[in-house]
Amino acid sequence: MRLKDLAEHLGLSQTTVSRALNGYPEVNEATRLRVAETAARLGYRPNASALRLATGRSGAIGLVLRGADDLGPHMSEFLAGMGGHVGTQEIDILVVTVNSLEDELAAYRRIAASQKVDAVVLHSPTLRDRRAELLLDLKVPFVMHGRTNIGHPVPWMDIDNTGAIERATGHLLDLGHRRIALLNGLKGRTFAEHRELGYLAALSARGVSFDPALMGNSIFTDEIAFRQAQAMLELRPRPTAFLAGSMMTALGVFRAIRQAGLELGKDVSMIAHDDVFPYLNADNMYPTMSTTRSSIRQAGMRIAELILQILGGKPVEDVHELWPVELVLRQSSAPLLQ
Amino acid sequence: MRLKDLAEHLGLSQTTVSRALNGYPEVNEATRLRVAETAARLGYRPNASALRLATGRSGAIGLVLRGADDLGPHMSEFLAGMGGHVGTQEIDILVVTVNSLEDELAAYRRIAASQKVDAVVLHSPTLRDRRAELLLDLKVPFVMHGRTNIGHPVPWMDIDNTGAIERATGHLLDLGHRRIALLNGLKGRTFAEHRELGYLAALSARGVSFDPALMGNSIFTDEIAFRQAQAMLELRPRPTAFLAGSMMTALGVFRAIRQAGLELGKDVSMIAHDDVFPYLNADNMYPTMSTTRSSIRQAGMRIAELILQILGGKPVEDVHELWPVELVLRQSSAPLLQ
DNA sequence: TCAAAATTTGAAATCGCTTTGAATGATCTC
DNA sequence: GAGATCATTCAAAGCGATTTCAAATTTTGA
C-alpha cells in the first residue's frame, strides 16, 4: 500500500493525503478525518526509505559497540533504556558491532558518509576521546555517556563517579579500614580516572597513604576480579575492604574472599558500584551488598531524550548533566575488627 | 558528496559511475579503476536512504526485544554474534524494544508496513508462536532461534535442549542422585518444554518418579533462582542435585546452597546450562561448574548467516539446524554422599 | 453584487540512487 | 567496405514519499 494507492482509493491527490496524515493546517478537517480513518483501516504506513529520502532524516540513532569491552550486561541495560524512550517516537536504534577502536572510527565514517543515522551515542569515553573528535569533524550529532576533554564543547550526561567513590572510600575509612583495595575500570577511561580521583581524595583527606598494589585496572568481569582480589588478599598486611567497580566485579571479589577462608561483612568489607541490573539485586545477596547505585537503564533513557533534544535544535553547549550517585549501606560494609 | 557530484568530477554519467562501483560487467576496466580510486579518495558512499528506495531492500535485519524478559546477558551475547557476522556485509541491525507480546506484534506490523527491515530474527519462541504466524502472514522473512509448531514450515536454528538435559540428568542419576531439582525457563517456551522432556525421559528411563515440587519455571535471574533453590532445600528429603537453566540461575542456587550451610560439589551437586558468557567462566568458579555448554554468541552469528541465505533465495524448508550441546563435567557434580 | 481574501486541493519538482532502453564508436566478418 | 556484432556510455524513467507553487473554490467585505 503506497501513498498513491491510498490517494486513489480516497479520490484525493497524494499531496492532500500526505498533508492530512502529517497534520498540516491547510486541509479541511472533514477530509483529514476521512483520510486518517481510511489510512488506519487499510494499515497504511509510509515507506521508511522513501520518507527518509524525502525528508533527509534517517530516523535512526546509531550505537556502535566494540565487542571486546562494550558488550555485556551494562550495554544491554543501557540499550533497554534507550529503546524505552525512542520506542515512543518514530526513531529506531541502529546497532553496529566492531572489534577495535580503528574499526569503530571507520564505522563512524561509513555511517556519516551514507547518512544512515541522524545521531549517535558515544559511551565509555576516554579522557581525550578520538571518536568525539572524529564525530565533531564529520558533523554527526552525538551525546556522550560520560565525559571527555577535547577542547570543544561536547554534549554529555554522566554520573558523579568521583563523588560516589569519595563517599564510599570515606565511609570505609570511618569504619576504621586503612587497607582499602580499589578494583577500577581500564586506565584512560574517564569514569575510571574519576573514580581514582575520588578514591585518592578520600584517602588523602584522612591522611592515609596510597598503595598502588591495592589498585587494579581492568574490564569488569567476575573472573578477572576474582584473580585480582585473590592476589591482593595474599598481601601482608592484606586489604580489609574492597571497592568493586561493578556487580560482576563484586561477585568475583566475593568468591575470592570466601576462598581465602574469610567472611564478607566481618573479616572483609566491600562496597560495589551497582548499575541496577534486574537480575542481580544487591539487596538479595548474602550478605546484602553495600553499593554506590545509579541506574544505567535510566541513563540510557535520558541519553536518548537528550539526543532527540539536540536533533530538535537544542544547542550542544546546554547539554551537560551530572547525576548524583546514591550510597546504600548494607551488610557487606562493617567496622574493622580489631 | 552525491553520486552526481562524483560523476561530474569524473566527467562521466551517473549510470556509468554507479555501474562501475557496483561491479557490473559492461564497464571498461580502466574506467572502473579510475572510478573506484576517485570514489575511495573522495570518500564517496551512496546515501543509504536513496539506495534503499531504489533497490527496494532496506539493508537491515530487525530484532525486537521484549524488555521484560528478553534483555539481559543472553541477548547481549546473541547480538554480539549477529553483529559479528552482518558487520562484514552491508547490513545493519535494527533494535526495537517493546513491553509486551501485543506491543511486539504491533511492532512487527509497523515494521512490515513501513518496510524498515528485510527480515527479522525471532527468539525465545513458544510452542505455538503467534509472532511466527503473524510474520508468515505479513510475508516478512525471518529465522527463528528455537522452534515452534504452527503447521507451516518455519526456518529455524536451535540447540538440542532435550538431549542436553537428558544427558545431564542421566549423569546425576548415575552418580546416585534421586532428588534432582530442575530450575527451568518459563512454561510454554519451547526450550523449557524441551528441557522438561529430556528431564522426564531420563528420570523415567531409570525408573525414578517425578516430583513437581522439584521443578521451577521462571526467567533466569540470580535472585529468583536463589529463592526457588532456598525453598527446595527446605523440603524433606531435600534435593541432592540441581539442574540450573543458566549461569545466572547457577549463581542464585549457589548462594542458596551456601546459605543453607551446605557445600556445592559435596553435599549438593549442580549442572548448569552455560551460554558461554565471556565474563562468567564456569571453569573459574569455585568449585568449578559442570555445565551443558553451547555458545549463544555463535548461535547469533549463525542466525545472521541463515537470514542472509534466506534473503539470497534459499528455500525456508531447507533452513533447519539442530546443534548438539556439550556436557562438560567439573567439580560441582559429584557422587551422592551416603 | 463583485472583487479580494481565505480556504482547500492538486500537478509537478525533488530527494539520490538503480536500471532500462537507446546511442555511439569500435571491431568483426565475409 | 558494408552490415552485423560487441563494448562502452548516457539520458531518462523509476522507487515512494514531501513540498513548492499554482489553481480552484468558498467566504468575506463594502
Outline the secondary-structure elements.
Two copies of one chain form a homodimer.
Chain A: H1 3-10, H2 14-21, H3 29-42, H4 48-55, E1 60-66, H5 73-86, E2 92-98, H6 101-114, E3 119-123, H7 130-138, E4 142-145, E5 156-159, H8 161-174, E6 180-184, H9 190-205, E7 215-217, H10 222-233, E8 241-244, H11 247-259, E9 269-274, E10 290-293, H12 296-311, E11 320-323, E12 326-328
Parallel strand pairs in A: 1-2, 1-3, 3-4, 4-5, 5-11, 6-7, 6-8, 8-9, 9-10
Antiparallel strand pairs in A: 10-12
Helix pairs in contact in A: 1-2, 2-3, 5-12, 6-7, 8-9, 10-11
Chain A binds a DNA duplex (30 and 30 nucleotides) through α2 and α4.
Folded structure, characterized:
Two copies of one chain form a homodimer. With 338 residues, the first copy, chain A, is of the alpha/beta class. The first copy, chain A, contains twelve helices and twelve strands. The first copy, chain A, has helices spanning 3-10, 14-21, 29-42, 48-55, 73-86, 101-114, 130-138, 161-174, 190-205, 222-233, 247-259, 296-311; strands at residues 60-66, 92-98, 119-123, 142-145, 156-159, 180-184, 215-217, 241-244, 269-274, 290-293, 320-323, 326-328. In chain A, the strands form two sheets. The first copy, chain A, has a six-stranded parallel sheet with strand order 2-1-3-4-5-11, with helices on both faces. A six-stranded mixed sheet of chain A has the order 7-6-8-9-10-12, sandwiched between helices. In chain A, β8, α11 (247-259) and β9 (269-274) form a beta-alpha-beta unit. In chain A, α5 (73-86) packs across α12, α8 (161-174) packs parallel to α9 and α10 crosses α11 (247-259). Chain A is elongated, with a radius of gyration of 25 Å. The relative contact order of chain A is 0.12. The interface between A and B is large, with 59 and 59 residues. Chain A binds a DNA duplex (30 and 30 nucleotides) through α2 and α4.
